UniProtKB/TrEMBL annotation:
InterPro entries: PHYHIP/PHYHIPL. PANTHER family: PHYTANOYL-COA HYDROXYLASE-INTERACTING PROTEIN-LIKE C-TERMINAL DOMAIN-CONTAINING PROTEIN (PTHR15698:SF4), PROTEIN CBG15099 (PTHR15698). It comes from the Eukaryota. This is Uncharacterized protein. GO terms for cellular component: cytoplasm.
Length: 144
């Protein structure tokens, strides 16, 4: 006797940074399943359909990196604007130490290839991995 769609088990397995985070049985008619994520973290979601004996009859895998939503970005922008808008703060802030985190070969290349001049490059994700400016702006970016 053939199993109906209702008798099959639909399973979602969620992996966060390579470790199993959650396993959920869902209804076959489910079209969406929200997942609470951490910006910058990598996730793998497996969707399995099992028959009555527990054997996989279909599966799919999606891999992604979580980013901030537009609402979260708006909240971060508001916090930043509120912070710098406090009237008792000066508009300028002195920095005593400035860092540029790059490997030694980067500095060696500057001396040999560009006559000690740093050339603008694309921003990587060495800060907050979910920052939407990653790989979207060019410049010389420093840490303080």
């Amino acid at each position: 006797m053939k199993k109906t769609e209702q008798e099959k088990l639909h399973v979602i397995k969620i992996f966060q940074s390579g470790k199993l985070f959650n396993t959920v049985n869902i209804k076959p008619e489910t079209c969406e399943y929200p997942i609470k994520t951490i910006p910058g973290e990598f996730y793998i979601v497996e969707y399995l359909i099992k028959d009555g004996s527990g054997k996989n009859t279909a599966e799919g895998i999606v891999k992604f990196r979580a980013t901030f939503s537009k609402d979260e970005m708006s909240k971060l922008l508001k916090k930043a604007v509120d912070y710098v808008s406090v009237s008792c703060r000066t508009k300028m802030h002195p920095f005593r130490v400035l860092y540029r985190y790059k490997p030694q070969c980067y500095w060696d290349d500057i001396q040999v290839q560009t006559n000690n001049m740093m050339i603008k490059c694309i921003k990587d994700d060495n800060g907050q991995a979910a920052n939407p400016t990653n790989e979207n702006i060019f410049g010389l970016l420093f840490s303080t």
